[in-house]
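Retry 2 of 3 after timeout on previous attempt. Resubmitting structure tokens to design endpoint.
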């Protein structure tokens, strides 16, 4: 029997750099005025989303992944592979880097590495983001880190609504204050912190991971092409449009706009979707900005009606 769409309940995280936009812009019931992350589609042990309604109501995504493989087609092995978050950076996040699968497997108890990508939902005028660094050689990189030459080291660029960035493992990066982002990533929490602006958290600086960072930072940094904004591909589905933002080894991510009524979907193991603007009806379910769902395997094409924008991904 065909399974219905799975709507998920997000998990929220309070962090020193967080704000209130997850409440103000998305209407979520957030736990504090420094809520920085909404784990919207996640089966990670640090934030495992529950199904909000229907046949599987109250069960976690990790449980379904393990025990209801038919929902996910042939993909169901190991751990659920992706994690989708909305990030409200009121203040700057620390400057960090992630390892690749090989380094994480060897040095982090067999964990996944982390490739991630950012769709910029909103950014204050003049907002910036950190992607990459300016060291020409490994020696120079190590000298810049050891001697805290942060201004020279860190590559900071302007950011605006609608920009898109793919962050490969080994890329120095940081979301800066005044930016709201939807992140699609490998389901991993392995982060090496390089620089935290000398801030204190509960009276102490947060731990840095300088030696591991030096091991994994790619040098020299080579900007992606295109690095942001422009779509890799544009398609029309008759009543809207979609852009493929990235296709890599771990995921493909699309921005999809619906304006009117039609059908959408196709062949994929399963789809993750987040409504980031507007409202409408998807396969008979009313949906609006801030809702996140999984279209299960073999669901095929489905009816859509409304004016809305979604970020959609699949493995
Ligand atoms: Zn990251």
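Retry 2 succeeded. Sequence:
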């Amino acid at each position: 029997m065909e399974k219905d769409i799975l709507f998920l309940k997000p998990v929220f995280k309070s962090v020193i750099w967080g704000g209130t936009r997850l409440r103000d812009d998305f209407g979520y019931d957030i736990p504090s005025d420094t809520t920085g992350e909404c784990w919207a589609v996640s089966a990670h042990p640090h934030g495992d989303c529950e199904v909000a309604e229907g046949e599987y109501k109250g069960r976690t995504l990790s449980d379904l992944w393990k025990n209801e493989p038919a929902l996910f087609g042939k993909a169901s092995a190991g751990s659920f592979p992706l994690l989708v978050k909305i990030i409200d950076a009121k203040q700057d996040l620390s400057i960090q880097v992630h390892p690749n699968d090989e380094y994480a497997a060897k040095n982090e108890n067999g964990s996944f590495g982390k490739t991630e990508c950012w769709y910029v939902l909103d950014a204050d005028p003049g907002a910036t983001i950190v992607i990459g660094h300016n060291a020409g050689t490994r020696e120079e990189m190590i000298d810049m880190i050891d001697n805290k030459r942060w201004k020279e080291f860190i590559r900071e660029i302007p950011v605006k609504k609608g920009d898109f960035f793919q962050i490969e493992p080994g890329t120095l990066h940081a979301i800066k204050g005044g930016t709201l982002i939807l992140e699609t990533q490998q389901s991993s929490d392995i982060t090496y912190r390089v620089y935290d602006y000398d801030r204190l958290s509960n009276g102490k600086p947060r731990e840095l991971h300088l030696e591991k960072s030096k091991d994994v930072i790619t040098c020299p940094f080579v900007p992606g092409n295109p690095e942001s904004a422009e779509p890799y591909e544009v398609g029309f589905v008759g009543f809207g449009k979609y852009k493929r933002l990235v296709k890599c080894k771990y995921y493909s991510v699309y921005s999809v706009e619906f304006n009117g009524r039609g059908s959408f979907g196709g062949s994929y193991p399963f789809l993750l979707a987040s409504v980031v603007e507007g409202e409408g009806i998807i396969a008979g379910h009313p949906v609006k900005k801030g809702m996140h769902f999984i279209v299960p395997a073999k669901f095929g094409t489905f009816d859509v009606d409304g004016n809305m924008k979604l970020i959609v991904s699949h493995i």
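Attempt log closed. The two ends are 23 Å apart (CA to CA).
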